[in-house]
Amino acid sequence: MTDATEASGASVTKRFLYINRKAPYGTVYAIEVLEMILIAAMFEQDVHVAFLDDGVFQLRKGQTPAVLEMKDFSKTYRALEDYGVEKIYLEKESMEERGLTTDDLIIPAAVLERKDMISLMDSMDVVLSA
Amino acid sequence: MKYAIVVNEGPFNHQASDSAYHFVKHALAKGHEVLRVFFYYDGVHNGNKHSAPQSDDRNIVKRWSQLAETNQIDLTICVAAGLRRGIVDDVLAPGFRISGLGQLIEACIDANRTIVFGD
């Protein structure tokens, strides 16, 4: 638990934004972004998570990656709240383009218009995207 | 300026590692500080000493090692991403080390700017 030990010594709090742009199983990015989010939360940073482009599919209900012999990590999004990660955003235009509504999502999230997503990014200290 | 650098793609397959290398080299030449270069996702392959490109091409792994040796910069490979892809201590090129994601967050906190190379 080296990370946890280091985390307790961190005194600076920065605004971190993780941007998810990729669908959940076509590439490795989604699951490895989740691993980054959990560590930032352990460091008691102000963590924000945004989903845009095909990244909005990461929060879609009814994922069954077992048929692809892949791990279903979608339940980890439900656990984010337990790590104090509660600032979750989806881009309105990305959802509309893909026919998704908030009823399709596994966790509650704020829906932002693209112009507001830009302002959100501008307000961050650190932006890590994939 | 203090920079934290993140490399998210493997060598040769993607230009990200080349761009990061040139950015770091020129930032150092201009007197900036590079706190850490952190390799994540397929970026961990940048630290594989077994990489052997053809002799008329750039040697990306060796180039990173030489940059680390000349400038004492910290090249850190993510342990979790590395394990998945077989990048462990036995295959590590000189100048690279393996550590946790905490090293990335720490560098982002300490740096004035975090620059991500990848898609």
Describe the structure.
The complex is a heterodimer of chains A (130) and B (119). Chain A has 130 residues and is α/β, with parallel strands linked by helices. Chain A is built from five helices and five strands. Chain A has a five-stranded parallel sheet. In chain A, helix 3 links the parallel strand 2 and strand 3. Chain A is globular and about 45 Å long. Mean pLDDT of chain A is 92; it is low at 1-9. Chain B is α/β, with parallel strands linked by helices and 119 residues long. Chain B is 34% helix and 22% strand. Chain B contains four helices and five strands, in the order βαβαβαβαβ. In chain B, helix 1 runs parallel beside helix 2. At the A-B interface, helix 1, helix 2 and strand 5 of A face helix 4 of B.
**Which sheet architecture does the biggest sheet of chain A show?**
5 strands, parallel
Q: H/E element string of chain A? A: HEHEHEHEHE
- Helical content class of chain A: 25-40%
Order of helices and strands of chain B: EHEHEHEHE
Low-confidence blocks of residues of chain B: none
Oligomer kind: heterodimer
- Roughly how many Å apart are the termini of chain B? 24 Å
Span between termini of chain A: 26 Å
Average pLDDT rating of chain A? 92
Helix content of chain B: 25-40%
Runs of chain A in which pLDDT lies below 50 for 5 or more consecutive residues are: 1-9
Tertiary shape of chain A:
globular
Structural class of chain A: alpha/beta
- The value of Rg of chain A in angstroms is 15 Å
Shape of chain B: globular
Strand content of chain A: 15-25%
**Neighbour order of strands in the largest sheet of chain A:** 4-3-2-1-5
Largest interface: A-B, 25 and 20 residues
Extended strand count of chain A: 5
